[in-house]
User: What shape does this take?
Amino acid sequence: MSPPASEVSAKRSEFEVYANVIRALMLRDMRTRFGGSYWGYVVVVLWPVAHIFLMVGIMIFRGIPSPMGNDAILFVATGAVPVLVFQYTSREAMKAMLVNRPLMYYPQVKAFDIMAARFIVETIKGFQGLIIVFAILLALGSSPSPDDPAMAIGGYTMALLLGLGMGAINMAIMTVFPGWLWGYIIITILLYMTSGVFFLPNMLPDELYSIMKWSPIVQIVEWVRLAYNPQLGVTVDYTYVMGWCFGTIWLGLVMERFVLRRFA
Assistant: This one.
């Protein structure tokens, strides 16, 4: 027996209201991040792209060869892109509550809605930035096509998921300790410098390399680079990386339930 038309209409109406709330939060996010216009969203997308090619330019200017034996541009890009996807996603997600907290005075807007809207925007922004990087590499005469596309997509996706998970955790921490924003920026800078963007971690002494392998970011970088060079000579603990990604998302949702809703 099918439910009454009134119940179906009520459920549809609730879903439409929720979808409109998320859409409005996304549009506000894209317009207010830089300058209050849609062009500001373009700046947000291009910012990490400019960061990547600044690093590429420095490496080329200094004449540093690729340790992987391929194009130096591709070497830097395969290291910088996953690290920056994680870094920007986790950091920008953390700022969502600071920017959008006044909206919670509206009864339709909840803390989870702000989190969900920022996550969707960051996911779209991350993949748009990746496409732009690929297009620029093609224009520069460098082939961005990996030997194993599925593996490359998996590595980039793990970087995004880890960024979302850490962003959710940071969002909850920020509601209690607003100064955590600056502390986390310092942590991400240290991660950027030690994640193998400009070097191959497996070429370091085994004692140091074994310590670095505890970082999921290092393993994600190796994951992506293995997709471009299967003979790289490294192993990735895929279960460990996915455990970090989904574990941080789970913990972030738990903290949203018990910390973010209470203190926001």
